[in-house]
Sequence to fold (155 residues):
Amino acid sequence: MKTTIQETAQELITRKEYPEVIKAALQLIIDEQMNSLALDKVLADKGIRRITDIKEKTLDVLLDYADIILEDDILTSDELRNLKMLKLFFRIEEGDFQKNNKFARVESIIVRQLEKLYADNIIDEQEALHQSELQGVFGLGYDEYTNIVNKVAKK
Fold:
Protein backbone atom coordinates (compact mmCIF):
# COMPACT_ATOMS: atom_id res chain seq x y z
CA MET A 1 0.00 0.00 0.00
CA LYS A 2 1.25 3.44 -0.92
CA THR A 3 0.86 5.74 2.04
CA THR A 4 0.20 9.02 0.27
CA ILE A 5 -1.09 10.32 -3.01
CA GLN A 6 2.26 12.10 -3.42
CA GLU A 7 4.21 8.84 -3.17
CA THR A 8 1.97 7.13 -5.68
CA ALA A 9 2.21 10.10 -8.07
CA GLN A 10 5.99 9.83 -7.83
CA GLU A 11 5.77 6.14 -8.60
CA LEU A 12 3.64 6.87 -11.66
CA ILE A 13 6.27 9.26 -13.01
CA THR A 14 8.96 6.65 -12.40
CA ARG A 15 7.08 3.70 -13.91
CA LYS A 16 5.19 5.19 -16.83
CA GLU A 17 6.01 7.20 -19.92
CA TYR A 18 3.71 10.20 -19.94
CA PRO A 19 3.68 13.39 -22.00
CA GLU A 20 5.37 16.36 -20.33
CA VAL A 21 2.06 17.98 -19.43
CA ILE A 22 1.00 14.89 -17.47
CA LYS A 23 4.38 14.70 -15.74
CA ALA A 24 4.00 18.36 -14.78
CA ALA A 25 0.49 17.73 -13.43
CA LEU A 26 1.76 14.77 -11.40
CA GLN A 27 4.56 16.97 -10.09
CA LEU A 28 1.90 19.36 -8.79
CA ILE A 29 0.48 16.49 -6.77
CA ILE A 30 3.93 15.56 -5.46
CA ASP A 31 4.55 19.19 -4.51
CA GLU A 32 1.15 19.36 -2.77
CA GLN A 33 -0.08 21.94 -5.28
CA MET A 34 -3.11 19.90 -6.33
CA ASN A 35 -5.53 22.66 -7.30
CA SER A 36 -7.32 23.92 -10.39
CA LEU A 37 -5.35 27.14 -10.72
CA ALA A 38 -2.00 25.33 -10.66
CA LEU A 39 -3.27 22.77 -13.18
CA ASP A 40 -4.59 25.50 -15.47
CA LYS A 41 -1.19 27.19 -15.35
CA VAL A 42 0.56 23.93 -16.28
CA LEU A 43 -1.85 23.45 -19.18
CA ALA A 44 -1.28 27.00 -20.41
CA ASP A 45 2.50 26.67 -20.04
CA LYS A 46 2.38 23.52 -22.19
CA GLY A 47 0.16 25.17 -24.82
CA ILE A 48 -2.98 23.21 -23.96
CA ARG A 49 -6.17 25.24 -23.96
CA ARG A 50 -8.53 22.82 -22.23
CA ILE A 51 -8.14 19.77 -20.01
CA THR A 52 -10.45 17.95 -22.42
CA ASP A 53 -7.65 18.15 -25.00
CA ILE A 54 -5.71 15.63 -22.89
CA LYS A 55 -8.72 13.74 -21.47
CA GLU A 56 -7.53 10.34 -22.67
CA LYS A 57 -4.17 10.80 -20.94
CA THR A 58 -5.77 11.95 -17.69
CA LEU A 59 -8.01 8.88 -17.75
CA ASP A 60 -4.90 6.73 -18.22
CA VAL A 61 -3.32 8.38 -15.18
CA LEU A 62 -6.35 7.61 -13.02
CA LEU A 63 -6.41 4.00 -14.22
CA ASP A 64 -2.65 3.62 -13.79
CA TYR A 65 -3.02 5.04 -10.29
CA ALA A 66 -5.75 2.48 -9.56
CA ASP A 67 -3.52 -0.33 -10.85
CA ILE A 68 -0.68 0.72 -8.54
CA ILE A 69 -2.78 1.05 -5.43
CA LEU A 70 -4.42 -2.31 -6.14
CA GLU A 71 -1.15 -4.20 -6.41
CA ASP A 72 -1.74 -5.38 -2.86
CA ASP A 73 -5.34 -6.31 -3.82
CA ILE A 74 -6.73 -3.96 -1.19
CA LEU A 75 -8.40 -0.63 -1.86
CA THR A 76 -8.39 1.31 1.38
CA SER A 77 -10.73 4.18 2.16
CA ASP A 78 -7.77 6.59 1.88
CA GLU A 79 -6.85 5.21 -1.54
CA LEU A 80 -10.47 5.49 -2.66
CA ARG A 81 -10.55 9.09 -1.43
CA ASN A 82 -7.35 9.78 -3.38
CA LEU A 83 -8.89 8.31 -6.54
CA LYS A 84 -11.80 10.69 -6.09
CA MET A 85 -9.40 13.60 -5.59
CA LEU A 86 -7.54 12.70 -8.79
CA LYS A 87 -10.82 12.48 -10.65
CA LEU A 88 -11.73 15.98 -9.48
CA PHE A 89 -8.25 17.35 -10.14
CA PHE A 90 -8.27 16.08 -13.73
CA ARG A 91 -11.94 17.08 -14.15
CA ILE A 92 -13.01 13.61 -15.13
CA GLU A 93 -16.76 13.41 -15.48
CA GLU A 94 -19.31 10.64 -15.48
CA GLY A 95 -19.18 8.74 -18.74
CA ASP A 96 -15.64 9.82 -19.66
CA PHE A 97 -14.24 6.30 -19.31
CA GLN A 98 -16.87 4.90 -21.65
CA LYS A 99 -16.61 7.77 -24.16
CA ASN A 100 -12.84 7.30 -24.37
CA ASN A 101 -12.85 3.51 -24.73
CA LYS A 102 -11.45 2.84 -21.25
CA PHE A 103 -14.28 0.60 -20.06
CA ALA A 104 -12.28 -2.65 -20.34
CA ARG A 105 -9.65 -1.32 -17.93
CA VAL A 106 -12.31 -0.03 -15.55
CA GLU A 107 -14.04 -3.39 -15.65
CA SER A 108 -10.77 -5.20 -14.90
CA ILE A 109 -10.15 -3.01 -11.85
CA ILE A 110 -13.67 -3.52 -10.53
CA VAL A 111 -13.57 -7.27 -11.14
CA ARG A 112 -10.37 -7.56 -9.07
CA GLN A 113 -12.00 -5.69 -6.21
CA LEU A 114 -15.23 -7.66 -6.39
CA GLU A 115 -13.36 -10.96 -6.37
CA LYS A 116 -11.69 -9.88 -3.14
CA LEU A 117 -14.96 -8.70 -1.63
CA TYR A 118 -16.74 -11.93 -2.56
CA ALA A 119 -13.92 -14.22 -1.40
CA ASP A 120 -15.73 -14.99 1.87
CA ASN A 121 -19.20 -15.08 0.21
CA ILE A 122 -20.39 -12.38 2.61
CA ILE A 123 -20.82 -8.69 1.86
CA ASP A 124 -21.07 -6.61 5.00
CA GLU A 125 -22.31 -3.03 5.22
CA GLN A 126 -18.84 -1.51 4.80
CA GLU A 127 -18.11 -3.68 1.74
CA ALA A 128 -21.46 -2.68 0.19
CA LEU A 129 -20.58 0.98 0.71
CA HIS A 130 -17.15 0.30 -0.78
CA GLN A 131 -18.80 -1.13 -3.91
CA SER A 132 -21.03 1.91 -4.24
CA GLU A 133 -18.07 4.28 -3.94
CA LEU A 134 -16.10 2.28 -6.49
CA GLN A 135 -19.03 2.47 -8.90
CA GLY A 136 -19.14 6.24 -8.39
CA VAL A 137 -15.41 6.80 -8.87
CA PHE A 138 -15.60 5.30 -12.34
CA GLY A 139 -18.93 6.92 -13.19
CA LEU A 140 -20.74 3.67 -13.87
CA GLY A 141 -24.48 3.52 -14.07
CA TYR A 142 -26.47 0.93 -12.16
CA ASP A 143 -26.85 -1.39 -15.16
CA GLU A 144 -23.18 -1.21 -16.12
CA TYR A 145 -22.08 -1.98 -12.60
CA THR A 146 -24.64 -4.76 -12.15
CA ASN A 147 -23.42 -6.44 -15.35
CA ILE A 148 -19.89 -6.51 -13.94
CA VAL A 149 -21.12 -7.85 -10.60
CA ASN A 150 -23.07 -10.59 -12.38
CA LYS A 151 -19.98 -11.67 -14.32
CA VAL A 152 -18.04 -12.04 -11.08
CA ALA A 153 -20.92 -13.80 -9.32
CA LYS A 154 -21.12 -16.41 -12.10
CA LYS A 155 -17.48 -17.44 -11.62
Remarks:
- The chain has nine helices and no strands.
- The chain has one domain: 5-153.
- Residues 5-153 form one domain.
- The CA atoms of residues 114 and 124 lie 13 Å apart.
